[in-house]
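Aggregate trends can hide what the representation actually does to any particular protein. For completeness, the protein is quoted in full, as a sequence line and a line of structure tokens.
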Amino acid sequence: MRWYWMIFALPATVLLGVAVSPGESETERQPPAVVLEHDREAARVSVSIRGEHFTTYHYGEDARTPFLWPVNGEGGVGLTRNFPMEQDEPRSTDHRHHRSLFLTYGDVNGYDHWHRERIDTESIETGTNEGYAFLRAHNHWLDRRGEVLMEEVQEIRFHDRPASGRFIDVITTFKATRGDVRFGDDKEGLLAFRIRPDIQGNRAGVLTNDRGDQGERRVYGVRSRWMDYAGPIEGHGVRGIAVFDHPSNFRHPTTWHVRDYGLAAANPFGLRSVAGEDEDGSHTLEEGETMRFIYRIYVHSGDHEQARVGEHYDAFAKMSFDD
């Protein structure tokens, strides 16, 4: 049976993901697996899977840089920190620039997008493929005068997966379109999330890398194919988030800027500032060159062993993203 995807547009809102079979009545329509609702006025894209809200992509003027929040696990339990958008319990008010799940960097031609400078989203496309829906954001990384430093195309794929183990793929491509672009050796970046306060490492949570090392002291700056952050949430059991570094990525396996206060970030450039190596990790894209990074975020129930993080990484590592 052939399927056709229909896009319904409302004022300033686009709903994507309704599957309709030729000749079917309204009552025979199959429920959509992954639904993206793009509210242009609010500058956000809401993602639902099997009728449950999973996450929302925020990119407007108030965002400064785009981010995903909330990121909900099984039962609609938020697994990333709510601050500064909302308050958490227990309260967590440090590092207000750590907005849930985000991709920024602290030194791009000397400009700090981690703390201060803007990443503007010029346009967003949405679509579907077999087993997932996606948004594709065309971003401009700006200097403090508002001039474009580089362009980025960031595709985010949301897979039709059970709530106990959901995947988000982030495929981002940087392009030096306005001169050379230098990523300095800096500890702040690149793909990062901030775990909810009650399961951060200085409370009930634990950081684990692909060798089974645990805790900030043992995993900070260490090269690893993946990093997991998990812990018990009262009334819900153990929940966590893992980030996978694809073998095609620059300097795979990446080094990690991770903290017991809740931060986990894959950082391929901080060889001195994060990994403590002798080599300067700075890298320059000459004008016209591109660089692509591919990450998978695995939002799971159970600890890293129960969620089979290593097995899921191995499957991800075999995937090609060249089509």
